[in-house]
Write a structure and sequence with these properties.
By secondary structure, this protein is an alpha/beta fold. It is 41% helix and 15% strand. Strands 2-1-3-4-5-11 form a 6-stranded parallel beta sheet, with helices on one face. A 5-stranded parallel beta sheet has the order 9-8-6-7-15, with helices on both faces. A two-stranded antiparallel ribbon has the order 10-12. This is BMP family ABC transporter substrate-binding protein.
Protein backbone atom coordinates (compact mmCIF):
# COMPACT_ATOMS: atom_id res chain seq x y z
CA UNK A 1 0.00 0.00 0.00
CA UNK A 2 2.85 2.38 0.85
CA UNK A 3 4.43 1.51 -2.46
CA UNK A 4 1.23 2.33 -4.36
CA UNK A 5 0.90 5.60 -2.45
CA UNK A 6 4.48 6.57 -3.30
CA UNK A 7 3.93 5.84 -6.97
CA UNK A 8 0.72 7.94 -6.95
CA UNK A 9 2.48 10.84 -5.26
CA UNK A 10 5.29 10.73 -7.80
CA UNK A 11 2.79 10.83 -10.64
CA UNK A 12 1.00 13.86 -9.15
CA UNK A 13 4.31 15.71 -8.73
CA UNK A 14 5.12 15.13 -12.39
CA UNK A 15 1.71 16.46 -13.47
CA UNK A 16 2.00 19.61 -11.31
CA UNK A 17 5.51 20.30 -12.62
CA UNK A 18 4.37 19.93 -16.23
CA UNK A 19 1.44 22.30 -15.68
CA UNK A 20 3.72 24.89 -14.09
CA UNK A 21 6.09 24.74 -17.07
CA UNK A 22 3.15 25.05 -19.49
CA UNK A 23 1.70 28.10 -17.70
CA UNK A 24 5.00 29.91 -18.08
CA UNK A 25 4.77 29.71 -21.87
CA UNK A 26 1.06 30.39 -22.43
CA UNK A 27 -1.21 33.39 -22.00
CA UNK A 28 -4.38 33.55 -19.96
CA UNK A 29 -6.36 32.09 -22.87
CA UNK A 30 -4.15 29.08 -23.09
CA UNK A 31 -2.48 30.17 -26.35
CA UNK A 32 1.20 30.86 -26.79
CA UNK A 33 2.21 34.32 -25.49
CA UNK A 34 3.59 36.61 -28.22
CA UNK A 35 7.21 37.69 -28.22
CA UNK A 36 8.10 41.35 -27.52
CA UNK A 37 8.62 42.05 -31.24
CA UNK A 38 5.33 40.44 -32.20
CA UNK A 39 3.48 42.43 -29.52
CA UNK A 40 4.96 45.72 -30.78
CA UNK A 41 3.97 44.88 -34.34
CA UNK A 42 0.40 44.22 -33.21
CA UNK A 43 -0.05 47.41 -31.18
CA UNK A 44 1.74 49.87 -33.52
CA UNK A 45 -1.07 50.26 -36.08
CA UNK A 46 -3.59 50.71 -33.26
CA UNK A 47 -1.58 53.66 -31.95
CA UNK A 48 -1.85 55.51 -35.26
CA UNK A 49 -4.78 57.91 -35.67
CA UNK A 50 -7.18 56.97 -38.37
CA UNK A 51 -7.25 59.61 -41.10
CA UNK A 52 -10.79 60.81 -41.79
CA UNK A 53 -12.21 60.87 -45.29
CA UNK A 54 -12.84 64.47 -46.30
CA UNK A 55 -14.86 65.91 -49.20
CA UNK A 56 -15.31 69.43 -50.60
CA UNK A 57 -18.26 70.52 -52.75
CA UNK A 58 -17.58 73.56 -54.94
CA UNK A 59 -20.05 75.93 -56.59
CA UNK A 60 -17.50 76.63 -59.32
CA UNK A 61 -14.05 75.49 -60.34
CA UNK A 62 -10.65 76.33 -58.83
CA UNK A 63 -9.81 78.02 -62.11
CA UNK A 64 -12.27 80.83 -61.37
CA UNK A 65 -9.41 82.77 -59.81
CA UNK A 66 -11.62 83.78 -56.90
CA UNK A 67 -13.92 82.10 -54.37
CA UNK A 68 -13.48 78.46 -55.35
CA UNK A 69 -9.79 78.96 -56.02
CA UNK A 70 -9.25 80.08 -52.42
CA UNK A 71 -11.29 77.20 -50.99
CA UNK A 72 -9.22 74.81 -53.06
CA UNK A 73 -6.04 76.35 -51.69
CA UNK A 74 -7.42 75.52 -48.26
CA UNK A 75 -8.04 71.95 -49.34
CA UNK A 76 -4.44 71.68 -50.53
CA UNK A 77 -3.23 72.86 -47.13
CA UNK A 78 -5.26 70.11 -45.44
CA UNK A 79 -3.70 67.50 -47.70
CA UNK A 80 -0.18 68.81 -47.17
CA UNK A 81 -0.31 69.23 -43.39
CA UNK A 82 -2.46 66.23 -42.45
CA UNK A 83 -1.57 63.71 -45.14
CA UNK A 84 -5.17 63.40 -46.30
CA UNK A 85 -6.26 63.00 -49.91
CA UNK A 86 -9.57 64.83 -50.07
CA UNK A 87 -12.39 64.35 -52.58
CA UNK A 88 -13.54 67.40 -54.54
CA UNK A 89 -16.75 67.79 -56.52
CA UNK A 90 -16.90 70.87 -58.76
CA UNK A 91 -19.55 72.95 -60.50
CA UNK A 92 -22.44 71.74 -58.35
CA UNK A 93 -25.46 74.08 -58.64
CA UNK A 94 -27.42 75.06 -55.57
CA UNK A 95 -30.60 73.00 -55.17
CA UNK A 96 -31.59 69.36 -55.81
CA UNK A 97 -28.26 68.49 -57.43
CA UNK A 98 -26.44 69.60 -54.29
CA UNK A 99 -28.64 67.41 -52.10
CA UNK A 100 -27.92 64.40 -54.29
CA UNK A 101 -24.16 65.04 -54.13
CA UNK A 102 -24.18 65.47 -50.34
CA UNK A 103 -26.14 62.24 -49.96
CA UNK A 104 -23.67 60.32 -52.11
CA UNK A 105 -20.68 61.74 -50.29
CA UNK A 106 -22.20 60.95 -46.90
CA UNK A 107 -22.02 57.25 -47.73
CA UNK A 108 -18.23 57.20 -47.73
CA UNK A 109 -16.88 60.35 -46.01
CA UNK A 110 -16.44 61.51 -42.43
CA UNK A 111 -16.31 65.27 -43.06
CA UNK A 112 -18.05 67.22 -45.83
CA UNK A 113 -17.51 70.92 -46.58
CA UNK A 114 -20.07 72.78 -48.69
CA UNK A 115 -18.77 76.10 -49.99
CA UNK A 116 -21.79 78.10 -51.11
CA UNK A 117 -24.72 79.81 -49.37
CA UNK A 118 -27.31 77.97 -51.46
CA UNK A 119 -26.05 74.60 -50.22
CA UNK A 120 -27.49 75.27 -46.77
CA UNK A 121 -30.90 73.61 -47.04
CA UNK A 122 -29.74 70.59 -49.09
CA UNK A 123 -26.91 69.97 -46.62
CA UNK A 124 -29.24 70.40 -43.65
CA UNK A 125 -31.58 67.70 -45.00
CA UNK A 126 -28.77 65.24 -45.62
CA UNK A 127 -27.07 65.95 -42.29
CA UNK A 128 -30.23 64.97 -40.42
CA UNK A 129 -30.03 61.52 -41.98
CA UNK A 130 -26.32 60.96 -41.26
CA UNK A 131 -25.61 61.91 -37.63
CA UNK A 132 -22.17 60.29 -37.67
CA UNK A 133 -20.90 62.49 -40.52
CA UNK A 134 -19.64 66.02 -39.82
CA UNK A 135 -21.05 68.65 -42.18
CA UNK A 136 -19.63 72.18 -42.49
CA UNK A 137 -21.42 74.89 -44.47
CA UNK A 138 -19.84 78.14 -45.63
CA UNK A 139 -21.81 81.37 -45.07
CA UNK A 140 -25.09 79.85 -43.88
CA UNK A 141 -26.90 80.04 -40.57
CA UNK A 142 -28.51 76.63 -39.94
CA UNK A 143 -26.77 74.23 -37.58
CA UNK A 144 -27.25 70.74 -36.14
CA UNK A 145 -25.23 68.71 -33.61
CA UNK A 146 -23.33 67.32 -36.63
CA UNK A 147 -23.50 70.44 -38.84
CA UNK A 148 -21.70 73.71 -38.30
CA UNK A 149 -21.29 76.91 -40.30
CA UNK A 150 -18.23 79.01 -41.06
CA UNK A 151 -17.66 82.52 -42.36
CA UNK A 152 -15.18 85.36 -42.02
CA UNK A 153 -15.58 89.05 -41.31
CA UNK A 154 -15.04 90.06 -44.89
CA UNK A 155 -16.63 93.39 -44.09
CA UNK A 156 -13.37 94.40 -42.36
CA UNK A 157 -11.51 93.90 -45.64
CA UNK A 158 -14.27 95.60 -47.62
CA UNK A 159 -14.03 98.70 -45.44
CA UNK A 160 -10.30 99.00 -46.12
CA UNK A 161 -10.73 98.60 -49.86
CA UNK A 162 -13.55 101.14 -49.72
CA UNK A 163 -11.18 103.63 -48.12
CA UNK A 164 -8.88 103.31 -51.12
CA UNK A 165 -11.82 103.63 -53.53
CA UNK A 166 -12.89 106.88 -51.88
CA UNK A 167 -9.40 108.27 -52.46
CA UNK A 168 -9.06 107.05 -56.02
CA UNK A 169 -12.34 108.33 -57.46
CA UNK A 170 -12.23 111.67 -59.29
CA UNK A 171 -15.93 112.20 -59.93
CA UNK A 172 -17.21 110.67 -56.66
CA UNK A 173 -19.30 108.05 -58.48
CA UNK A 174 -18.45 104.45 -57.58
CA UNK A 175 -20.15 101.34 -58.94
CA UNK A 176 -20.68 97.96 -57.28
CA UNK A 177 -21.87 94.77 -58.99
CA UNK A 178 -23.61 92.73 -56.29
CA UNK A 179 -23.99 88.97 -56.59
CA UNK A 180 -27.18 87.96 -54.75
CA UNK A 181 -29.19 90.16 -52.34
CA UNK A 182 -28.36 88.13 -49.23
CA UNK A 183 -26.99 89.49 -45.93
CA UNK A 184 -23.32 88.62 -46.53
CA UNK A 185 -23.32 90.59 -49.79
CA UNK A 186 -25.41 93.44 -48.40
CA UNK A 187 -23.29 94.04 -45.30
CA UNK A 188 -20.12 93.81 -47.39
CA UNK A 189 -21.39 96.54 -49.72
CA UNK A 190 -22.36 98.60 -46.67
CA UNK A 191 -18.86 98.23 -45.19
CA UNK A 192 -17.27 99.16 -48.50
CA UNK A 193 -19.44 102.28 -48.70
CA UNK A 194 -18.68 103.31 -45.11
CA UNK A 195 -14.98 102.92 -45.85
CA UNK A 196 -15.24 105.08 -48.97
CA UNK A 197 -17.22 107.72 -47.06
CA UNK A 198 -14.56 107.83 -44.35
CA UNK A 199 -12.03 109.15 -46.87
CA UNK A 200 -14.43 110.99 -49.17
CA UNK A 201 -17.80 112.05 -47.70
CA UNK A 202 -19.03 113.12 -51.15
CA UNK A 203 -19.08 109.69 -52.80
CA UNK A 204 -22.10 107.64 -53.77
CA UNK A 205 -22.17 103.95 -54.65
CA UNK A 206 -24.47 102.67 -57.40
CA UNK A 207 -25.41 99.00 -57.01
CA UNK A 208 -26.75 96.57 -59.60
CA UNK A 209 -27.33 92.84 -59.16
CA UNK A 210 -26.08 90.06 -61.42
CA UNK A 211 -27.80 87.24 -59.48
CA UNK A 212 -24.76 85.07 -60.19
CA UNK A 213 -21.72 83.76 -58.39
CA UNK A 214 -19.75 82.86 -61.48
CA UNK A 215 -21.08 83.85 -64.89
CA UNK A 216 -18.49 86.08 -66.60
CA UNK A 217 -20.74 87.11 -69.50
CA UNK A 218 -23.63 88.21 -67.25
CA UNK A 219 -21.28 89.89 -64.80
CA UNK A 220 -19.53 91.82 -67.54
CA UNK A 221 -22.85 93.15 -68.82
CA UNK A 222 -23.80 94.27 -65.31
CA UNK A 223 -20.44 96.02 -65.02
CA UNK A 224 -20.90 97.75 -68.36
CA UNK A 225 -24.29 99.07 -67.22
CA UNK A 226 -22.53 100.90 -64.39
CA UNK A 227 -19.61 102.04 -66.53
CA UNK A 228 -22.11 103.55 -68.97
CA UNK A 229 -23.42 105.66 -66.09
CA UNK A 230 -19.97 107.17 -65.60
CA UNK A 231 -18.58 105.48 -62.49
CA UNK A 232 -14.80 105.82 -62.31
CA UNK A 233 -14.21 103.08 -59.71
CA UNK A 234 -15.91 99.70 -60.04
CA UNK A 235 -16.14 96.97 -57.40
CA UNK A 236 -17.76 93.53 -57.62
CA UNK A 237 -18.68 90.59 -55.40
CA UNK A 238 -18.62 87.73 -57.91
CA UNK A 239 -16.07 84.95 -58.21
CA UNK A 240 -14.87 85.98 -61.67
CA UNK A 241 -12.69 88.94 -62.73
CA UNK A 242 -15.18 89.93 -65.45
CA UNK A 243 -16.10 93.25 -63.83
CA UNK A 244 -12.57 94.52 -63.30
CA UNK A 245 -11.67 93.42 -66.83
CA UNK A 246 -14.61 95.45 -68.17
CA UNK A 247 -13.43 98.40 -66.06
CA UNK A 248 -9.88 98.07 -67.40
CA UNK A 249 -11.17 98.25 -70.97
CA UNK A 250 -12.57 101.69 -70.12
CA UNK A 251 -9.51 102.80 -68.15
CA UNK A 252 -11.50 102.69 -64.90
CA UNK A 253 -10.14 101.57 -61.52
CA UNK A 254 -11.27 98.06 -60.59
CA UNK A 255 -11.77 96.15 -57.33
CA UNK A 256 -12.16 92.38 -57.43
CA UNK A 257 -13.18 89.83 -54.83
CA UNK A 258 -12.11 86.70 -52.95
CA UNK A 259 -8.53 86.38 -54.24
CA UNK A 260 -5.75 88.59 -55.56
CA UNK A 261 -7.06 89.55 -59.01
CA UNK A 262 -4.34 92.03 -59.92
CA UNK A 263 -3.13 89.89 -62.83
CA UNK A 264 -6.43 90.39 -64.66
CA UNK A 265 -6.17 94.20 -64.74
CA UNK A 266 -2.68 95.16 -63.52
CA UNK A 267 -2.72 98.80 -64.61
CA UNK A 268 -6.09 99.76 -63.10
CA UNK A 269 -6.28 97.42 -60.11
CA UNK A 270 -6.82 98.83 -56.61
CA UNK A 271 -7.21 95.74 -54.38
CA UNK A 272 -9.96 93.49 -53.04
CA UNK A 273 -11.03 91.47 -50.02
CA UNK A 274 -9.17 88.17 -49.92
CA UNK A 275 -9.93 84.83 -48.25
CA UNK A 276 -7.56 82.41 -46.53
CA UNK A 277 -9.51 79.25 -45.67
CA UNK A 278 -6.57 76.89 -45.08
CA UNK A 279 -6.01 77.43 -41.34
CA UNK A 280 -9.71 76.96 -40.63
CA UNK A 281 -9.91 73.77 -42.65
CA UNK A 282 -6.81 72.30 -41.01
CA UNK A 283 -8.03 73.21 -37.51
CA UNK A 284 -11.47 71.73 -38.18
CA UNK A 285 -10.21 68.43 -39.55
CA UNK A 286 -7.74 68.13 -36.66
CA UNK A 287 -10.55 68.65 -34.15
CA UNK A 288 -12.52 65.82 -35.73
CA UNK A 289 -9.44 63.59 -35.61
CA UNK A 290 -8.79 64.23 -31.92
CA UNK A 291 -12.44 64.06 -30.92
CA UNK A 292 -12.85 67.69 -29.82
CA UNK A 293 -15.04 68.92 -32.70
CA UNK A 294 -18.32 70.60 -31.77
CA UNK A 295 -20.89 72.22 -34.00
CA UNK A 296 -20.55 76.01 -34.07
CA UNK A 297 -21.30 79.12 -36.12
CA UNK A 298 -17.73 80.27 -36.79
CA UNK A 299 -17.32 83.95 -37.72
CA UNK A 300 -13.58 84.51 -38.02
CA UNK A 301 -11.86 87.88 -38.09
CA UNK A 302 -9.01 89.47 -39.95
CA UNK A 303 -6.92 88.98 -36.81
CA UNK A 304 -7.46 85.21 -37.11
CA UNK A 305 -6.21 85.40 -40.69
CA UNK A 306 -9.27 84.05 -42.45
CA UNK A 307 -9.79 87.32 -44.33
CA UNK A 308 -7.41 90.02 -45.54
CA UNK A 309 -6.90 92.39 -48.46
CA UNK A 310 -4.90 91.62 -51.55
CA UNK A 311 -1.79 93.80 -52.05
CA UNK A 312 -2.78 97.22 -53.32
CA UNK A 313 -2.18 97.73 -57.03
CA UNK A 314 1.10 98.99 -58.40
CA UNK A 315 -0.42 102.28 -59.54
CA UNK A 316 -2.15 103.09 -56.25
CA UNK A 317 -0.31 106.08 -54.67
CA UNK A 318 1.88 105.28 -51.70
CA UNK A 319 0.01 107.65 -49.38
CA UNK A 320 -3.20 105.74 -50.07
CA UNK A 321 -1.46 102.43 -49.37
CA UNK A 322 -0.05 103.77 -46.11
CA UNK A 323 -3.46 105.07 -45.02
CA UNK A 324 -5.14 101.70 -45.67
CA UNK A 325 -2.42 99.69 -43.93
CA UNK A 326 -2.58 101.98 -40.89
CA UNK A 327 -6.32 101.39 -40.55
CA UNK A 328 -5.77 97.66 -41.06
CA UNK A 329 -3.46 97.64 -38.07
CA UNK A 330 -6.12 99.39 -36.00
CA UNK A 331 -8.55 96.62 -36.90
CA UNK A 332 -6.00 93.94 -36.02
CA UNK A 333 -5.32 95.66 -32.68
CA UNK A 334 -9.04 95.81 -31.89
CA UNK A 335 -9.02 99.61 -31.89
CA UNK A 336 -11.53 100.05 -34.71
CA UNK A 337 -14.97 98.59 -35.37
CA UNK A 338 -16.48 98.86 -38.84
CA UNK A 339 -20.13 98.73 -37.81
CA UNK A 340 -20.28 101.25 -35.00
CA UNK A 341 -22.77 104.11 -34.89
CA UNK A 342 -23.80 106.48 -36.02
CA UNK A 343 -25.08 104.40 -38.94
CA UNK A 344 -27.87 105.78 -41.09
CA UNK A 345 -29.70 103.81 -43.77
CA UNK A 346 -30.40 105.01 -47.31
CA UNK A 347 -33.84 106.25 -46.26
CA UNK A 348 -32.32 108.53 -43.62
CA UNK A 349 -33.29 106.37 -40.63
CA UNK A 350 -30.73 106.15 -37.83
CA UNK A 351 -30.14 102.42 -37.44
CA UNK A 352 -27.45 102.68 -34.77
CA UNK A 353 -26.78 105.63 -32.53
CA UNK A 354 -23.37 107.17 -31.89
CA UNK A 355 -21.00 104.66 -30.31
CA UNK A 356 -23.33 101.65 -30.50
CA UNK A 357 -21.81 98.55 -32.08
CA UNK A 358 -23.77 96.14 -34.22
CA UNK A 359 -23.87 92.63 -32.78
CA UNK A 360 -22.91 89.63 -34.89
CA UNK A 361 -26.58 88.69 -35.14
CA UNK A 362 -27.44 92.17 -36.41
CA UNK A 363 -24.60 92.12 -38.92
CA UNK A 364 -25.50 88.66 -40.22
CA UNK A 365 -29.14 89.69 -40.51
CA UNK A 366 -28.54 92.91 -42.48
CA UNK A 367 -31.22 93.51 -45.11
CA UNK A 368 -30.82 97.26 -45.65
CA UNK A 369 -28.36 99.64 -47.31
CA UNK A 370 -26.51 102.49 -45.63
CA UNK A 371 -26.89 106.09 -46.67
CA UNK A 372 -24.97 106.91 -49.85
CA UNK A 373 -25.92 103.77 -51.76
CA UNK A 374 -28.03 104.13 -54.90
CA UNK A 375 -29.86 100.92 -55.61
CA UNK A 376 -32.55 98.69 -54.23
CA UNK A 377 -32.54 95.34 -52.48
CA UNK A 378 -34.99 93.01 -54.22
CA UNK A 379 -37.57 91.42 -51.95
Amino acid sequence: MKKITLIFASLMLMIVTACSQQSATTGSTGTAAPSASASAATTAPQAEKKLPKVAFVYIGVPGDGGWTYEHDQGRLMVEKELGIKATTVENIPEGPDAERVFEELAQSNDIIFGTSFGYMDPMYKVAQKHPNVKFLHATGYKTLPNMGTYMGREYQSAYLVGMAAGKMTKNNHIGYVGAFPIPEVIYTINAFTLGAQSTNPNIDVAVVWSNTWFDPATEKQAAISLLDKGVDVLAAYQDSPASIQAAAERGVWGIGNDSDMSRFAPETYISNPKWNWGPYYVKTVKSVMDGTWKSEAYFGSMKEGITDIAPLGKNVPQDVKDMVLKKKQEILDGKFEVFQGPIVDQDGKVRFEQGKKMTDEEILGTTWFVKGIKGVIPK
